[in-house]
Amino acid sequence: MEINKKKRILVLNYEFPPLGGGASPVSYEIAERLSKTGDFDIDVVTMGYKDLSKYEEVNSNFRIHRVKCLRSKKELCHPWEQATYLISGWFKCKELLKNNKYDICHCHFIIPTGVLAMKLKKKFGLEYVITAHGSDVPGHNTDRFKFLHKFTGPILRKFCKMAKAITVPSHFLKDLILKNINYDIDKKIIVLPNGSRDFLMEDIKKENIILSIGRMHEGKGFQYLIEGFKKIDREDWKLYLVGDGPYKKTLEKMAGGNKNIIFTGWIDNKGAKFIELINKAKVFSLLSAFESQGIVYLEAMSAGCSILASNINACKETVSDEVGYLVQRDNINEIELKLRRLIDDNVRLDFFMKNSRKRYEKKYNWAKIIEEYKKII
Length: 377
Fold this sequence. Notes:
Layout: E1 7-12, H1 23-36, E2 40-47, E3 55-59, E4 62-67, H2 79-99, E5 104-108, H3 113-124, E6 128-131, H4 146-149, H5 153-162, E7 165-168, H6 171-180, E8 189-191, E9 209-213, H7 222-232, E10 238-242, H8 248-255, E11 261-265, H9 272-280, E12 283-286, H10 295-302, E13 306-310, H11 313-318, E14 324-327, H12 332-344, H13 346-363, H14 366-376
C-alpha cells in the first residue's frame, strides 16, 4: 500500500510576522494551518530585521528562514529594501533546493517576490502559485506605488502568465489585475477571501469604545475619524487609535490633547492587551483610501464589533449593511452622523454587533478557507 507523502512547499514573502501589514499575518496563518494538517511540510524564506532570529522552527512541519536585508522600519518596506531581499533570498532558496525537493512555491505578492519565484522556476523548474495582496497590483495603492508601477507592467504580465494559479481576496482585486496587468489570465485567478484569527473572548464586557487599527499614514483615514469623533463630543465614549507610522505626530496634534482620544502605539495582535481592547470595543472604524479586502475588519467582526468603513469597492465586499455603515471617507459630516447613529441607538448597535460575529463565522473563519487553499496548493 502506497503511503501519501507530505507535499513540500517553499513560501516566499518579504513581509512575515512581526514585519509588515495585513498581508503578513495572512501568509503566516496559511502556512501554519497547512502545516498543522500534517499533509504539508513548509519552509518560509523572508526578510531578516535587527535581532529577529535567522531560523525559527514553528513546528515539525513549519520552518522560517530570515535572510540578511536592508530594512529600516518594521511596518514599512521601501522598493530598494525589497531588492535586498531578492538577492539574499535567491541564495537561501538555492541552498534549500540543494537539500530538498519542493512540490510547489507559494509566492506572496506578484512583485517584488514574483521576481524570485520566476527565477526559481527557470533555474530549477519549480512551479509557483501567487497570492496577490493589493500593493503589488497597479491601480490599488496610488499613494505609494503609482510611480513605481509605471515601469512594472511588462514584468508583472510575465510573472502572472508563468504562475500556475493566482489567488486574490476580493473580486475588486481580480478586476484590477485583469484591467491593469493581463486580460488573458482570467481562468488562473481564484477569488478566495482571507480569513482572520478568532479574537472573541466572551468573558470580556463591551465598553463605549470606538477602535481603529492600522499603519499610521494618510491613506488609512485616521484624520477623518478623529475629526468626526471630536464633533460628536461625547464624554462617555473613547476613541482608541492603535498603530504607529510616519503620520502619528500629525494625528496627535489633530487630537489636540483630547483625553478621550487615546494613542496606544503599536500593539502585538497576539498579546493580551490587543485581545482585551478589540473585545471591549463596540465600534471598529478604519476609513481607508484603499484595501484589497481589509484583514483588520475581519478581526473586529470576529470580536463582535460593529463596523464603520469607507465606501471603497473592497470594503463593499467585506462589510455588509447588516454589520455597520459605509461612508465617504473624507466627509466629516457623514462620519459624525453615522457615529451618532451607532452610539445613540443601542438596539441598532446591538444588531450590528451580533451580525458582525455571524458574518465572520460564515465567511471569514480560517478553518473553512484553508480547505480551499489545500485544493489549490
